[in-house]
TrEMBL record:
S-adenosyl-L-methionine binds at G120, T121, G122, S123, G124, D143, N189. It catalyses: L-glutaminyl-[peptide chain release factor] + S-adenosyl-L-methionine = N(5)-methyl-L-glutaminyl-[peptide chain release factor] + S-adenosyl-L-homocysteine + H(+). Transmembrane segments: none annotated. It comes from the Bacteria. GO terms for molecular function: peptide chain release factor N(5)-glutamine methyltransferase activity. Its EC number is 2.1.1.297. The keyword Magnesium does not apply. This is Release factor glutamine methyltransferase.
Length: 282
């Protein structure tokens, strides 16, 4: 069967299953099976697809139609222009989180040798991106999941920053207990979805680790615990960056009262609360 025929048929399968972007998902999956970029499919619509590959493609489409995320099917996700390995052990990197990385890079540009912590590193997308974009930085990445840390280490090696990203298994910043004023910046994309809203998440999101999504009754359990730790571990003038959900800006800002903190809320491209940026005044 030809590329154009396969895509037409399996796009219809995904559309009938209610998948939001059926054509794009079908293209990504066929490109994955054929080992090419999805754009190549536009250049070669009449290319014949071997029976074995066509069968494999249909199998992946069936799994996608059942709600399995594309990134878990391909094992890859792009973030900050870099390709990251992902597995069901980690949260899939989101475009919205690029705001956190971009803000961190802006704040740390010009710093001689910044020391950064990435709390809840998951796939390592934030930690690795920061190490790539800030060649002088030393990054300490923490996650409570050893399975997630294995993926993060793989990504650090993939992007050749394993010598500058140190991984710790632990709960929030507890691996650094006993230290004081060691970080120039602490970044955290922790679970912030209120427990009562977990059931309303799209089916494919519910395939991701609950540990990386559920933030407790109001979504702020982890940030309440993190802020006191950050006060001890940030250098005076250092920054704390917290990714948040829409509408959480005021509540999270309330955890960072002046004069100890000076903060603001940055919106994402859709104009929704997305990032709290707070400077530690000491």
């Amino acid at each position: 069967m030809r590329v154009e025929e396969l895509l037409k048929k399996e796009t219809a399968t995904l559309r009938a299953a209610g998948i939001p972007s059926p054509r794009v998902d079908a293209e990504v999956l066929l490109g994955f099976v054929l080992g090419c970029d999805r754009l190549v499919l536009y250049w070669e619509p009449r290319r014949e697809v071997a029976a074995g590959k066509a069968t494999r493609f249909k199998e992946l489409v069936a799994r996608r139609a059942a709600g399995e995320p594309v990134a878990y099917l391909t094992g890859e996700k792009e973030f900050m222009g870099l390709s990251f390995s992902v597995t069901p052990a980690v949260l899939i990197p989101r475009p919205e989180t690029e705001l956190l990385v971009e803000t961190a890079v802006t704040l740390l540009q010009g710093a001689a040798a910044p020391v950064v912590a990435d709390v809840g590193t998951g796939s390592g997308a934030v930690a690795v991106s920061l190490a790539v974009l800030l060649p002088a930085a030393r990054v300490f990445a923490v996650d409570i999941s050893t399975a997630a840390l294995a993926v993060a280490r793989e990504n650090a090696c993939r992007h050749r920053v394993a010598d500058r990203v140190v991984f710790y298994a632990g709960d929030l910043l507890e691996p650094f207990a006993g230290n004081e004023a060691v970080f120039d910046l602490i970044a955290a994309n922790l679970p912030y979805i209120p427990s009562g809203e977990m059931g309303a998440l799209p089916p494919e999101v519910r395939r991701e680790p609950v540990l990386a999504l559920d933030g407790g009754p109001d979504g702020l359990n982890f940030y309440r615990r993190l802020v006191p730790q950050a006060e001890r571990l940030l250098k005076p003038g250092g920054h704390l960056l917290l990714e948040i959900g829409p509408g959480q800006g005021a509540a999270v800002s309330g955890l960072l009262p002046p004069p100890v903190w000076e903060g603001s809320v940055k919106p994402d491209l859709a104009g929704r609360d997305r990032l709290v940026v707070a400077q530690y005044r000491g």
